[in-house]
Design goal:
With 253 residues, the chain is α+β, with helices and mostly antiparallel strands. The chain contains six helices and eight strands, in the order E-E-E-E-E-H-H-H-E-E-E-H-H-H. The protein binds zinc ion.
Length: 253
């Protein structure tokens, strides 16, 4: 039986001279591992190899007993090339795809997360989101927080995880601890050796993420560093795209 869905490709592996194994993130299907037979042929039904971050309507026959699903159709939405036209944008969206792959399970749907991800990609392609480092970092941080929430790993950002004291900008020192999964105040920080000191601004915007668009560039870089450190801790290994995302903020891309 064929299943229809909308999906974004989050990983590709060459399977043979002519085929690819894809990891797709479907709106209603969740993560699907599928073979696209003949996709590397110029004249296949897929019109050439499928690239990571391409998205559109798919048709597939689901997997049984641990086997791969079979992709039969992928009608890719037209793209203007804005994602691939800017290296930092490409790196950040590839990082988002890597995180979706690592933090969601096969056939476990997350429609809200899918909509966020597609919205991120479409806004870039349609020119609604400027591909400046700052605009991309804002959207990436918001996406990462939605992803953590959807994965059941929501960090505690409004108060000290340990003593429950609500965050105030006049705390003086505010820390983020990966093991505590959130903010820690100066009275509690000694119990969490992995903590990192946050600037007051970073703590403020993490607590009130709706205001994150007002953060300055330095604070956005700091927030991303904290999120990467936290995500790396959760996953227990180095993240492939992280070093490209948290590189020097002076790097012109
Ligand atoms: Zn505390």
């Amino acid at each position: 039986m064929l299943t229809k869905d909308r999906a974004v490709c989050i990983r590709t592996v060459d399977y043979s001279e002519t085929s690819q194994i894809l990891t797709l993130f479907g709106r209603l299907s969740g993560k699907i591992r599928a073979i696209a037979k003949g996709s590397k042929r110029a004249k296949s039904a897929f019109e050439g190899p499928i690239e990571v971050l391409s998205f559109g309507q798919i048709m597939y026959s689901p997997a049984y007993e641990g086997k791969l699903a079979t992709l039969t159709e992928f009608q890719q939405a037209p793209v203007r090339g804005a994602i691939r036209g800017n290296l930092f944008t490409l790196h950040c969206t590839l990082f988002a795809a890597e995180l979706v792959d690592l933090l969601t399970d096969d056939y476990d749907p997350h429609p809200d997360l899918f909509d966020q991800f597609i919205g991120f990609l479409q806004d870039i392609e349609e020119g609604k989101l400027e591909t400046t480092r700052r605009d991309i970092l804002i959207r990436l941080a918001l996406f990462q927080l939605v992803l953590l929430y959807e994965a059941g790993l929501r960090p505690i950002l409004g108060s000290c995880v340990n003593c429950k004291r609500p965050f105030r900008p006049d705390w003086g020192e505010t820390y983020f601890s990966h093991t505590a999964n959130g903010l820690v105040c100066r009275d509690c920080e000694m119990s969490f050796p992995d903590k990192v000191l946050l600037s007051t601004k970073a703590a403020k915007y993490l607590t009130d993420v709706k205001q994150i668009a007002n953060a300055d560039d330095k604070t956005l870089d700091e927030i991303e560093r904290v999120l990467i450190r936290h995500l790396t801790g959760i996953l227990g290994h180095r993240l492939k795209m992280a070093e490209y995302v948290q590189g020097s903020s002076n790097a012109k891309v």
